[in-house]
Amino acid sequence: MNARPSSLPTTGQVLGVLVECLGESKGKGVANGTKGQTKWAIHKQIQRLAKQSGQSKGAAGEIKGALIDGVAALFDASLKGQLVSGKILKMNFQERVMSALPRLHGGNSSEKRFTVRLIFWIVYFIDHHEWLCPQLDAAHEPDIALREWVRHTAHFCTNTLADTVRANPSLLDGLPRGISWNLPSKQLDGTVKWPLCHGFEWLQGMLADQSREELPAIVFPNDEKSRSLMCFNRMMRGGGLPGLDKIEKVVRHQWQFKDDGATISPEKLKAVLLWCRALQFALKSVEKHFDFNFMWELVDWHKRAAASNVSAAV
Question: pTM of the entire structure?
Answer without folding.
Answer: 0.83
